[in-house]
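Lab notebook, bench 4. We co-purified these components, and the gel suggests they stay together. Before we commit to crystallization screens, I want a quick structural picture of the whole thing.
Request: model the full complex, all chains together.
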Amino acid sequence: MSKVPMNLFYARTHEWVKVEGNVAFVGITDFAQHQLGSVVFVDLPEIGSVLKQNKEFGAVESVKAASDLMSPVSGKVIEQNDEVVGDPEQVNRDPYNSWFIKIEMSDPKELDALLKPNEYEEISR
Amino acid sequence: MPDVKKTCLYDSHVRLNARMEEFAGYWMPIVYTSIPEEHKAVREKVGMFDVSHMGEILVKGKDALAFVDHVFTNEITSKPVGKVVYGMFLYPNGTIVDDLLVYKKSDTECLLVVNASNIAKDYEWIIDATEGFEVVISNQSDDISEIALQGPLAEASMRHIFDLDLSNLEFFTFTEGSLFGVKMLISRTGYTGEDGFEIYGPAPAIAEIWEAFLSHGVIPCGLGARDTLRFEAALPLYGHEISDTITPLEAGFKLFVRMDKPDFIGKSQLEQDLALGLSRKLVGFELKTMAIPRQGYPLYLGNREVGHITTGYLSITLGKPIAMALVSTDVAKNGSELEVLIRNKRIPGVVRDKKFLSKNYKK
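Here is the predicted assembly.
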């Protein structure tokens, strides 16, 4: 069984969101990393990019395939996680500490549309 | 999927927690632990693959050699018994039915080892070509299982585990030996760019051999690593580098096409192609910035689409993004600067040779 921490929001497309004030940290779930296999590359948007909820913002690539990353919220990219960019396999080892980007949310109400942990657990069995 | 077949090693794969997927009509292990770990085991030590899905077609009879030379691009008649020869079957239009290994068992018997996904097509195609030849063709794919043991420690493993000295078995030759009291065909061949062996035999004995390898620490490797390994060695995969829309000359496998033979199916079209000049060529391609080129991604020179990626990876051994690509001949020179389109971004790269790494075959 993959892990689904209680303190996060989830997208149907297997991204997680951790909220600190007005900032959303975004990564991919344990279920997603397991499905992908060894992550070898993350392709992330530049700082300052403006993202729209449910629109593609980059990709996470395993040895075998590329998967689109979908933005769980709208807002501006304020930081990339350089550690993950430099060591993408960290996503496999510790998915919930391997955030990809921080987004300054333009509409925190969008979080209401995301899944709660128990709801995500249902779709990631 | 009720029609999906299981190899004789299926239970072992499940016990080892492999990710199983349907491939060419079989449940096959894609990965056991991680593709990079399995890949490195083969490059640095020794790994093994269940390749029981591969097809085996036996050609027997007075005209066996003449028949194989009629359907096969490479040449078998002049070779000694015990030799393994790589080549292709072609359609009359010069494109590829399949690539295969031919094992010369005697002057009246050859074993053809073909791709799993092409077994039915190949068998029919072969049968259709037999008119005028005294041969009997039998599809033995369901009766023969196969393990590929690959890596620099493969020879030592065979000695250690089976007390079998294969140091005199040359690259691309085979022997028939007894393992666990059962007659096996063992060839010094593989699909990884490393030294190693392919072992063919009946299911129960193959399953016993697999367990013996496991208990001696040979790393089981899935089809995921099989693909990353063969790619780095620039070995073609049917459906990627070669297919029924490409000729072996375009794919750069002239070495395996004996144009000096009197005839083989597809030869006259290849002669015409050579006279006219080839319009496309399979090349190596290396990206200048970090991104991963994948099969089907288009290549551009300015606004002109000049080809596509056939296989690409972030090479596990080299740590850089490389690919094989089929491109127009006019941009196929080494050093030619092209762009590959990845998620709507143009990524610059350069055409290069396909010698991504030096192969460690037994000399």
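Chain B has a mean pLDDT of 97. Worth comparing against the SEC data before the next meeting. The interface with chain A takes residues 19, 31, 34-36, 224, 227-228, 290-292, 294, 313-314, 316, 343 of chain B (CB under 8 Å).
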